User: What shape does this take?
Amino acid sequence: MAEAVAAPLANAVKKDSTTLVVLGILTVILGVLAMMTPLMTGVAVALILGFLLIGAGIMRTIFAFKCKSWGKGILVFVLGLLTLLVGIYMVVRPGLALATLTLVLAIYFFVDGIFEIIEAFDLKPLKGWGWMLFGGIVSVVLGIMIWRGWPEKSLLFVGILVGIKLIFAGWAMVGIGAAGRSVASTAEDVVGDVKDAAQDAVESAKDTID
Assistant: This one.
């Protein structure tokens, strides 16, 4: 009975952990590529964010005409138009948008790093928590560095720091996934030992009866 429950559970944990390890490796590779082409990465981030804002602005503007309240409709329309204009600005002038985006990233890295450090201590002593802690500390330091180097190095900061963040996030995923695989393997070994012990007990009982 225990084997029937524990074995599928261990297999599921091992499968999910393997997926996490693979995703972590891919994330590290993306981080390396981002650091190799920081300017291209920064422009790409600005363009992607710009197109997302354009889409959000269009949807908000359309939604404004469906509002039942005239006052609410006007407010939604203004917010939608503002979002649309910001998106267009980021697409047309990605270089200038990077300066603003860099400042936003500085705040993001700092806040994200604080939460990552807290999460790492919550995972302690699970294997891989150290990588998450280190990644959180790096995020905080990067946020401070971006703030101090803004706006002179905005064009390069986004690509480089996004790459570094991806690398550490990927390593944290690999570490946690490896820990999950280790736990699943240990559970399988325990189930196997229990099964062997049960079989030995049954055989001993049979020998005693005979």
Remarks:
- The radius of gyration is 26 Å.
